[in-house]
Amino acid sequence: MAEIVSAVPTSGGPYYWAAILAPRKHAAFASWITGWFNLLGQVAVTTGISFGLAGLISTTATLNPSYTPTAGKTIGIYAAVLISHGIVNTFGVRILRFLNNSSIIFHSLGVGSLAIAVLAKAPTHESAKFVFATFYDGTGTDGIGWSIRASPAYVAACGVLMAQYTLTGFDASAHLSEETQNASWSAPLGVITSIGCSSVFGFFLLLAFLFSIQNFANTVGSPIGQPVTQILVDVFGTDGAIVLMTLIMICVWHCGLFSMTSNSRMMFAFARDGGIPSFFHKVDARFQSPIRAGSSVAFGAATSIATIGLYISYGIPILIAVINQGGYTKGPFNLGVFSRPVGLIAVLWIAFITVIFCLPTTNPVTSQTLNYTPVAVGIIAVFALGSWILWARRWFTGPIRQVEAELRSVSVVNEHNILEDADRKDVIVT
Q1: pLDDT cut 90: percent of the chain above it
Q2: CB-based contacts of 94: which residues, under 8 Å, 6+ apart?
């Protein structure tokens, strides 16, 4: 993906790449399918992050005995989180630049300090054998997990899902590339460093928590309902746990904010190219951001679409690039002879997790524990394919070039210049 974004740095991201990389006669179809999977997948990720933050806030509040969590309260917190993200995203690239810098500080120095503090303060530490060699199957609601009904390998595959979910959204560097200086280098480096930093910091944070578990049975069966919170309570006490959970929540809030930012830029670009109504294709001259797109994400995120849509949208342009290697001119960041092998591995991995994401993770399978991801993916696929066959193929031609846009009275130049003017003053580095 980094190689592709280096060659085609645009806020459209995957759907634009699919159009550029595919043979001309299939470009519009590839762009349409990829665009809808990417858009709806991003809405789902925004939902997941914001709802996850609402859950963390509600869980932390339960450390105060006078607070009783309810579904209504959690939904209210969730709505407040989405509204806060929507408001901040209306103020343009200037305020987002400072929040981007603060996000880097919180996610690097903050998380690093948290990991060190947990290890240093923990009264006792688990052994390396416990951390690296203990197998725990928590997939069974009745005590019989998938390791018994299926195999330990199946449980391990289920365990990959959450890690994979946390590593989504690295196409954000592409969606913000039109607001980034030297995008052909900055955007691909943003893709690589986002994954690298998340993996390294996340790995060491997990190790810090695992080594600092005081009572494993009490941690996984915590009455608080959140193992990480329980670990912090055991190590720092209630007040200390609240402070450190606040740090974690601030980090998650930043993630949700920039997920919405990325989503709104993609909506802006897709609307500019005719994929969704032109109402969303407007850069506000005062705030220098696509306000209509950002506000709609806040409301649209309430209807969650499975995040698997993102991975499919990543895989389509990569697969096209693997098949049609001569279909584009590579940018300054490229993999050389390793381009096709790496692309093939990426496509195979996406195919693997697409299947795994559709399988049940809790045993026994009931109407309450069934994995409804296939239903969500089916809805996306049916809508995208059906709309293409019924009407979109008659008028959607894929990403429009500047000249074509002007002929259709779409002022790409003026709106791009607004972003360029803002870029000279404040630059978002992703």
Answers
A1: 27
A2: 288, 422, 425, 426
